[in-house]
Specification:
32% of the residues lie in helices and 22% in strands. By secondary structure, the chain is α+β, with helices and mostly antiparallel strands. Strand 4 (89-90) and strand 5 form a beta hairpin.
């Protein structure tokens, strides 16, 4: 078993489903410190710890940044065939919560980085950002951004699950709460009240049929909208005076979220008040840029796979926060996890892809740092 796979197993054994990323930091920080990294941490809430590690960054060329998140989503109600916190290996598959999303990617970062620091960086150094609370809106990345903003930075690599293909960005996430208010009355005399559910339901139907004004992105495609929740009323025999819904909007490169919010509010009508829940912009790097093209070449050489064309991901990543904080740096997403295994029951990751990811990251680091 490789070092990276063993480290993945150690991380999966820690339940970090929305809490206690500090336990993972306690495993990873000593490994990075012993390899020569300067490690600092920041907590945005008790136990919600984000790690920033830097090595040999005193060069004219800014450091390459590698990033992944330490939290996972909960297990869900369905029973698991494999213990979600044991990381049982079955052939090439490592089973457990977070194997693909994305403790395998985090382990690959740490394994690759700690192998490289015995050499001398002639051109640039490395920066590693391992975050808490990505799954619920990148709060850990925001905490890290307070440490990183204003520091020179090179490109950013996010090891979210792509099955070791290269993605040049991802859709943005704009989550909104919409509320309608009415006037309560007895259910037998509804004409004396104003039904908040009816008001919000009419708005919901309009939104469900809304077509965005923005043109489709050539890689990301169309923006999407999903009504995620709808709640209202207290009892059957009263006219409800309050109703609430949530929207999950996934935007594409070029869309501004303030304009999207205004567009949706106009569609819903004046009876709905809106409040943002998550506001993470889309991320996009031109594939023909010098660094992005070199990443694709390195990945192709290591994997032996030629991608049919540029790819973007529908999920969001911490790059939505980190890339702007680092100075709108070029960004790619490339990690060992299987995209279709994120958040599912009996999640798994290929152990060979974890090891392949280590090789990819080592090559990217060598090329950028001059190792």
């Amino acid at each position: 078993m490789s070092e990276a796979v063993a480290l993945t197993r150690s991380l999966v054994a820690l339940d970090t489903a929305g809490h206690d990323e500090s336990r993972a930091v306690a495993v990873l920080a000593p490994l990075l410190e012993s390899a020569g990294f300067d490690v600092s941490t920041v907590e945005h809430a008790p136990g919600r710890c984000t790690l920033v590690a830097e090595w040999s960054i005193d060069h004219d060329v800014p450091p390459l940044c590698l990033s992944g998140h330490l939290d996972t989503v909960p297990l869900g109600a369905a029973p698991w065939t494999h213990d979600p916190f044991f990381a049982e290996q079955d052939g090439d598959r490592l089973h457990g919560r977070g194997t693909s999303d994305m403790k395998g990617g985090v382990a690959a970062i740490v394994a690759a980085a700690t192998r490289l620091t015995s050499g001398r960086a002639r051109r640039a150094g490395l920066r590693i950002v391992l975050t808490a609370a990505e799954e619920t809106g990148s709060d850990g990345a925001r905490a890290a951004a307070s440490l990183l903003r204003g520091r020179p930075s090179g490109p950013l690599v996010i090891t979210e699950p792509t099955a070791n293909t290269v993605a040049y960005g991802h859709k943005g996430a704009l989550w909104l709460t919409g509320r309608a208010v009415g006037v309560t009355a007895h259910g037998s005399t509804p004409s004396l009240g104003v039904n908040a559910i009816t008001r919000l339901a009419h708005a919901t139907v309009r939104l469900a049929h809304h077509s965005f004004r923005h043109e489709a992105h050539p890689v990301m495609g169309e923006p999407t909208l999903n009504v995620g929740t709808f709640h209202g009323g207290l009892n059957t025999n009263s006219v409800p005076d309050r109703a609430e819904m949530t929207l999950d909007v996934r935007t594409v490169a070029g869309q501004r979220h303030d304009l999207v919010s205004a567009e949706l509010a106009a569609c819903a009508g004046p009876d709905v008040e809106w409040e943002p829940l998550v506001d993470l912009p889309p991320v996009w790097t031109q594939p023909d840029g010098e660094w992005a093209a070199s990443v694709a070449s390195d990945v192709r050489e290591i994997t032996g796979v030629t991608q049919p064309g540029p790819r973007g991901m529908s999920y969001f990543t911490d790059a939505a926060v980190l890339a702007p904080a680092l100075g709108s740096v070029p960004t790619v997403i490339c990690g060992p996890g299987e995209p279709d295994q994120a958040h599912v029951t009996d999640e798994w990751c290929s152990t060979s892809r974890i090891d392949e990811s280590v090789a990819i990251l080592q090559q990217l680091c060598r090329s950028w740092c001059g190792l």
